[in-house]
Amino acid sequence: MKIEQQVSLKKYNTFGIDAKAAFFCEINTLKHLSDVLKRSEYPDKFILSGGSNMLLTRDIEGLVLHINLKGITVSQENEEAVLIKVMAGENWHELVLWTLAHNYGGLENMSLIPGNTGTSPIQNIGAYGVELKDVFVDCEAMEISTQKIKTFSKEACHFGYRESYFKNEGKGKYIITSVTLKLTRKNHQLNTSYGSIDVALAKNGIKNPTIKDISEAVIAIRSSKLPDPKVLGNSGSFFKNPIISNEDFELFSKKNPEAPYYKISDEAYKIPAGWLIEQCGFKGKRFGDAGVHVNQALVLVNYGNATGAEILGLAHKIMKAVEEKFNIRILPEVNIIK
Ligand code: EPU
Asked: Has residue 182 got a pLDDT over 80?
């Protein structure tokens, strides 16, 4: 197993932050992983997957483990459905394309989400009305302290909106090694009502969409709003959409009748953070190399050489402005490495 020293992490995080790892190791097998976790000469270990949901604000003093476990296998199938086991290092969007090529339904709305499959349960990734939890069966994870593999059922993962056990009680204790998903082989459950999917389909004259048509519509919508991390460093939505109580919503909507919102339960409403940030005048603004994306104010971008601290400074400025103007606190959804 090769351990490198002083490795730049710029190409390993989609924000393109040039932080350094004191030690760096590529993990290709489960044996690799358990062996390296046992090595006591590197007490601080930092787990890096697709690097698509993190902001590095400092160098990493310890050993970075880059999880590159590969493989997709069909573990069970019948006429209706299929279970696929996907190793953690598989790129999420390539997985989506693989499922479409096999006509397996369920992931099409989550096309083009950056990152790897192993981290998808950590924040229960989601887009256009579908979340990982809708197709999730279970995942396997290695306990860092014992190197034992444990299986987490859907219930054990405590999924919520961009939330899970792995972001809370389980934080820092496990490394997800594989994820098993249940997909349809026929009678696909199409979900076209969210966002502008049906508008995009109608524009292309598609009346009876296939899962591939939906994926293509999602790709077109996402590409028009969200920057490609290969071109402009970013981490997708930097903030979560805030959830507010009925009372707070009543006050808010009286003052802001034009604001978009989603009623998410009898007790709460979700307000798009992108709208709040845009109203504070930040959309498209640039401060040095840190900026707010022109087409989607929820996304912070790195124009080239921004440091993590500069991006974080901008995030704080935005949070303060939103709180002052709307009395609503928005919180990052990105994992900030301080
Ligand atoms: N809006 C604005 N200004 C903006 C951005 C949005 O006014 O700059 C308004 C839009 O006009 C719309 C509403 O806010 O009325 C919602 O916007 P959008 O449909 O773009 O979705 P979002 O709520 O901003 C969420 C997810 C995205 C996901 C989309 C589509 C979160 C934090 N973000 O964004 O997820 O792609 O819905 O499902 O929930 C990600 O997590 O990285 C991500 C991109």
From this structure: yes
